[in-house]
Amino acid sequence: MIKEVTTKSDWNEVINRIGNYDFYHTYDYHSISKGENEQSILLVFNDDTKVIALPLVLRPIKNTPYCDFTSVYGYSGPLTNITDTEYDYSIFQSKLNAYFKEKGIISVFSRLHPYIEQDAILNSLGDVINLGKVVNIDVSIPAEESRRAYGKSNKNQVNKLRRQCTVHKAETKEDILEFVDIYHENMRRLDAEAYYFFDKKYFLNFMEIEDFKTDILLVKDNETDTYIAGSMFVKTNNIVQFHLSGTRTDYLRMKPSKLFLDEMRLEATEAGFTYFNLGGGLGSQEDSLFNFKASFSKDFKIFKVWKYVVNQNIYDELSANAKDSGFFPKYREGQH
Question: Is omega for the bond preceding 142 within 30 degrees of 0, making it cis?
Fold first, then answer.
């Protein structure tokens, strides 16, 4: 059967037993990410010593007796300690489907993790869809070797930035709030959706979490003694994630973000990490953002999402008046 895990101690026990997880799978990240009236649940299936765990966020569907599941912002999806490539996941899939139906779940959506094999766990439930590439810097190799993948202009710009700027690791509340200000300025310039304007409390809480390590690197312009860019990097097990970042508008032409990425590449290599995920382009497109990241490495992974309609009849009823924009689930178009 499928067990619902909602307490931190039980949640941590499960993912630690599995071992191969990222911060997006943790209880604390779910706690600071879920919205009002939403509940974080880790769905757990046990088969003797084998474990499958699926972290999701339960959301009521307004003005109905139904609910749906979604995933937190970032790279989530199922985890397992099963290494047998011939393992039959059909019993898990059957139990999970029965759980969804009993719970009145209409649809399930989850972003998947490009560095964790998840397809086989989900392969007969809905659709796993390739959205695009993300960029990995292989930090398991010597730093001078990973630097060889940089484009020529990229190397020159990083060298110039190291002469013009200093990288500072945020240590105080004031440092964190300086980063928040830079991040919010960046989001305003991009005319980002309200969803991306995390408040100050979110960042301060994030930095207090002990289940994973978060570094904020700030870039200071030596000439003006001004912090001009910054980024959050989250370290879990063997992965470093490039999480949230920003650059002051007046300093965009300097491209200071190249410096904090290069600095974290060196730190991650020194600390013995395997992957440094830079992510992909906006909406998973191979756009200017993707090309910027690809100037650091040509080691690409595939980002996928899982879409599953559990109850097609109710899904169609709820979606009857929705625009066909490709958003999933269709009935939540305009609510995100």
Answer: no
CA dihedral (60, 116, 312, 89) positive or negative: negative
pLDDT tens digit sequence for 169-210 = 999 999 999 999 999 999 999 888 887 889 999 999 999 999
Q: What is the pLDDT of residues 141-162, one digit of tens each?
A: 999 999 999 989 999 999 999 9
117-143: buried (b, 16+ CB within 10 Å) or exposed (e) per residue? ebebbbeebbebeebbbbbbbbbeeee
Could you tell me which residues are beta bridge partners of residue 47?
50
H/E element, 133: strand 127-138
Q: Is the pLDDT of residue 35 over 60?
A: yes
Domains and CATH numbers, the chain: 2-132+303-332 (3.40.630.30), 140-273 (3.40.630.30)
27: helix, strand or coil:
helix
The torsion defined by the Cα of 37, 40, 45 and 49, in degrees rounded to 10, comes to -160
Nearest Cα neighbor of 139 from 273, 299, 279 is 273
**Paired sense of beta strands 239-247 and 275-279, if any:** parallel
Instruction: Tell me whether strands 50-60 and 79-80 are parallel, antiparallel or unpaired.
Output: antiparallel
* Full DSSP string of 196-236: G---HHHHHHHHH--SSEEEEEEEEETTTTEEEEEEEEEEE
Which residues neighbour 325 within 8 Å (Cβ) at sequence distance 6 or greater? 333
What the block records as the tokens of 163 is: 């002469």
Report the SS3 class of residue 313.
Answer: helix
User: In this structure, what DSSP letter does residue 61 have?
Assistant: P
Consecutive H or E run containing 99: helix 90-103
**Which residues have CB under 8 Å from 177's CB, separation 6+?**
200, 203
Predicted TM-score (pTM) of this structure: 0.93
- Give CA separation, 142 vs 84, 161, 217, 261, 300, in Å: 32, 22, 22, 16, 19
Tokens of 262: 């290069």
Closest CA relative to residue 250, chosen from 221, 291, 213, 209: 221
